[in-house]
Amino acid sequence: MFYFFCSLAIITTLCAIIHTNPIHMLLYLIISLLSISSIYFIIGAYFVGALQVIIYTGAIMVLFVFVVMMLNLGKITEQKERKWLKSSMWVIPTIISILLLIFIIASIITTNHKSINNKIFDAKDIGISLFGHYGLLVEFISMLLLASLLVTLHIGRKNNQGKLVK
């Protein structure tokens, strides 16, 4: 099951990158995030898997769908994305990805400390850490997400010559 969900996550992520229709791309990304949460459930990280489903797959992807619907993307966007998906545009990102993969594999192989800490955190410990020590950072990120939503609304209105997006 682990290998099935890993391959499903990789395939749907690649489909999300390659696909030109924004709604289909978001659906592929949702499947990818759900398969990643399934991997968390398989390895026993139930709390992280539940957070993955609730926060990323639930809240953030729904926000992305609303933004795409608000921007009212159409055929013009698909034509631009098809130009971006030419093979010549993939050279530099592919080289960077291969270098990052080599670096990650080398760091995993050369590490001396190969044990995983099996300390179990409950929701109370995570909540205290998140809203105690990192409280200001959490609030800053929420303000950043709100500001990005407002900018997206402004861009959506600007592309329609000041008309409200329907």
Automatic annotation (TrEMBL):
Top enzyme category: translocase
Gene3D superfamilies, A to Z: NADH-ubiquinone/plastoquinone oxidoreductase chain 6, subunit NuoJ (1.20.120.1200)
GO molecular function terms listed in the Swiss-Prot or TrEMBL record: NADH dehydrogenase (ubiquinone) activity; oxidoreductase activity; quinone binding
A Pfam entry, by short name: Oxidored_q3
Location(s) in or outside the cell: Cell membrane
Tagged with keyword Secreted: no
Catalytic activity: a quinone + NADH + 5 H(+)(in) = a quinol + NAD(+) + 4 H(+)(out)
Membrane topology per record: Multi-pass membrane protein
Assembly behavior: Composed of 13 different subunits. Subunits NuoA, H, J, K, L, M, N constitute the membrane sector of the complex.
NCBIfam families for the chain: PRK06638.1-1
PANTHER family per record: NADH-UBIQUINONE OXIDOREDUCTASE CHAIN 6 (PTHR33269:SF17)
Name of protein: NADH-quinone oxidoreductase subunit J
Species, as recorded: Candidatus Pantoea edessiphila
